[in-house]
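User: For my dataset I need records formatted as: sequence, then structure tokens, nothing else. Please produce one.
Assistant:
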Amino acid sequence: MSNMNIGDLIKKRAANKKAITELNQTVKTLNKENIILDEELIRHMDGQGTNKVSNDDANISIKEEVFPKVISYEEIQRYTLETGDFSIWRKQLTLDPLREHWKLDATIPGVEPFVDRKIVVRLNKSI
């Protein structure tokens, strides 16, 4: 590909983007169908009192995981401050407020901006 000129590179990149968009639409449709199928499988399996089924095509089992459902951030914050247990919090900064600080030339100790450069492709109608 290193021998391609800029026009050929754009044409190939646009074709790839179009193909990916079409494949993503197919994936989206299949995922929606899988949600319905999974609900039906769970209903049938619960009705049979089992969490594993199989045939020649596949082995299927029901997996259960427990996830947090926040009902009060104030209570979680109070618990964290009282116990000092910060292990339940994700160590991730919120991007939009940080960008606002940087626009105002504010500095935040322990954080520095970095620039991530990416190619953005917008397909023309002719493709």
